[in-house]
Amino acid sequence: MRFKRPTIVILIFIIILFSSCNTKDVTEQNIVFGTVCKITGSSQIPFDQVWETLRNLESKINMNTANSEIDQVNAKAGLEKVEVSKTTYDIIQTALYYSKLTDGAFNPVLGSVIQLWKDGTDFCVLPAPEAIEEGLKHTDINKIELSELNGKYFIYLEDPDMRFDLGGIGKGVAADEVKTLLLDSGIDSALINLGGNIYGMGTKKDGSSWKIGIQDPNAERGEYLKVVEVNDESVVTSGSYERNFIKDGIKYHHILDPSTGMSANNGIISSTIINSDSTACDCLSTACYVMGIEKATKLIQSLDGFKAIFILESGKILEVQGKSNEEI
Ligand code: ADP
Ligand code: MG
User: Fold this and answer.
1) CA of 284 to the centre of ligand 2 (A)
2) Element (H or E) spanning 71, and its range?
3) Neighbouring C-beta atoms of residue 178, cutoff 10 Å
4) DSSP strand E in the chain: where?
């Protein structure tokens, strides 16, 4: 088949137009889990399905969503077990795994203490020491009963005053779910940013890595201490610069030390974890913040394929590599 010259010119024009449309990334954002969720990538991303997936997860595990599965489990604490989806059941199992791995620094049933620090969803109240002492009595993960019967899944909190709070794992799980949805939809490049819980899928269109800034905890938002380059990896930071308040000259923040019920204060002021598993990063970033430099460093060094960046109170930046990273 032979084309005439004007036809060729038109064809080239159409190809250029098509490829330039195709290379332009688009971003959509929405509020889910009470936070700004942003997805950037090709226009082929099934955005409607992304939001549906996130809202669906929210209706299962967000304790602030009335009647979510976790809200029901909390409401029925000490009364009866509640049937939940396999998704919720698996998330609680994962949360328990990380709670044990971190020697309790990550605790998914810290709700009885966390709620003392809140007015609604705002973290702004300094509780009385007696209230914290009482709250801490209801945070024993051994009082969580998981059971499976005839293909159905149940969760029961044996202690009537015990409450799940999945704020330290939810966004990581959500990022992993979006990643799976996009991969199943044939998308291999996207930036998933769920309230700072980031997953860089594949590479950018030009083949370069996703560049993620690590916030300077002592500077304005958007000022970075370091930039991390990732492909198919998640970057999750827990920092005291988020959700904090100052009372009588002391800064209090939302990452609580389960051994004291107070804002964690063990030398780390920002804890970033990098790995392909966003759920793991979310749990471990919170846990490492709580554990402090020595314990957190040992933990990350013992894990395959994990990297951590800790910013210390002194301003020092400490980079730690997991086992297999060291060998690379
Ligand atoms: P962010 O929500 O800012 O991403 P984190 O992932 O560190 O930060 O999660 C902090 C949230 O997790 C808190 O707002 C609270 O809901 C919950 N939380 C606080 N301390 C702990 C803890 N030690 N273990 C598990 N969850 C915690
Ligand atoms: Mg976390």
Assistant:
1) 7
2) helix 69-75
3) 25
4) 26-32, 35-41, 82-84, 118-119, 122-123, 144-149, 152-157, 190-194, 197-201, 210-215, 224-230, 233-239, 244-247, 250-253, 268-275, 307-312, 317-321
> Which residue minimizes the CA distance to atom 8 of ligand 1?
238
Q: Look up the pTM and report it.
A: 0.92
Residue to mutate, 197, 237, 254, ligand 1, most ligand atoms under 8 Å from C-beta: 254
Two structure tokens written together for 274 = 């990098």
CA of residue 283 to ligand 1 center, whole Å: 8
Name the token pair of 223: 């000022």
Q: Is 99 in the pocket of ligand 1 (CB under 6 A)?
A: no
Say if residues 109 and 63 touch (Cβ distance below 8 Å): no
Per-residue pLDDT reduced to its tens digit, 75-87: 999 999 999 999 9
Q: Which domains can be identified in the chain, with CATH numbers?
A: 60-157 (1.10.3980.10)
Q: Does the pLDDT of residue 121 top 90, yes or no?
A: no
Are the CB atoms for 112 and 138 separated by under 8 Å?
A: yes
- Binned at pLDDT 50, 70 and 90, residue 12 comes out as low
Here the tokens at position 58 are 């929210």
pLDDT for 10 equals 60
Distance 230 CA to ligand 1 centre (A): 24
Distance CA 172, CA 51 (A): 15
CB atoms within 10 A of CB 9: 11
Please, what is the end-to-end C-alpha distance for the chain in angstroms?
Answer: 53
